[in-house]
Request: fold
Amino acid sequence: MELSEKEQAVLNKINGKIDDRIEEKNNLIQKQLNNLYERTDQMAVKGQTNNTVERKEAREWLVKFFKREPLEQKDFSGHMATDPDASGGYLVPEILSESIAHYVQESGVARQRMRYMPFGGPGNSRRIPKESQGVAVQWVDEAGAKPITKIGLDQVVQELKKLAAIAVITEELIEDAAFDLVAYVARRIGDAIAREEDRVYFSGDIGDGDPFDGVINATGVVPVTMEAGEGITDITADHLLEAIYAVPKEARRNGAFYVHSDVLFAIQQLKDNENRYLVSRPMADNEPARIWGYPIYTVDVLPSADESEVDLPFAIFANLQKTCVYGDKEGVRVKILDQSTLTDSDGNTMNLAQNDAVGVRVYKRTGYACLHPEGIAILTTGEAT
Reply:
């Protein structure tokens, strides 16, 4: 029997409420799983210390050093260096290195979403095994011969590259050191490291001089190409759905979309035939929006909606925990320089002592590798018409 318009409206309302309850339950389960993944992965990352005495002492050490006041070991704990080492730099308080590492972890999307595997032992590279052939089973008769099957393994080489900078701090900045100097320096440096790691790990291009090909340029990823003439702003819910089903079903579990924030804005405007928004609201302030049941994370190193290039990879769908790994060796290494003459990329020089400044030299050896590119779908703009 055909329903009247009023009856159909009531039925649609009931179905909508049922769908909302199902989505709410699914989101809650997914949130619990995501929290479990994050807690498990971050066990290997050294946290930021909350020792108030140690933080106060580190701040005093930095202020005295930056102002070139006398440093006497009796005034500080054993982890504070008062004499330069063989390379002419001062080892900084451990808390500063820990704080920088904390802000790198906090700010970096790649570090939060990819699988963390710390490096150990000598060398700058390692081989990571990946399964290329699984076990096959068969039905056999009683007392029948059992089939022989092999587990095939390939290897992916992951290399370490050095990421470094010298942050120059003038004495004027620390003359009034009422603020938390440790947190200020650590956040500025940590955020910069995280931004550069995200840029290279997500969109790096060896052809442009980057040390790695990022996820969108990795060999073997699954392309999902839009129609000819379609650009980033032409993105539809169907494009995103196609990206989900472009990867094997076992790779979809805990998958997520990664897009520029401008692209997320375009996605959030998508509606269904009944004028309902397709993107579900986050359940909490720190939770991502979702579409088709999968979270959407913003990575502003990916192409933005302003770019009109054809055949441009710009969005990712993947479970980065399963498909990509990153690692580092010995964490963030920090030294403070006060006598050096520095030369920037333009050839300009600066004598730290002469200019009443100090340099915070930071470097870390880090690298990432794409283990299972076949589990990554890359949404790409169409060709020129």
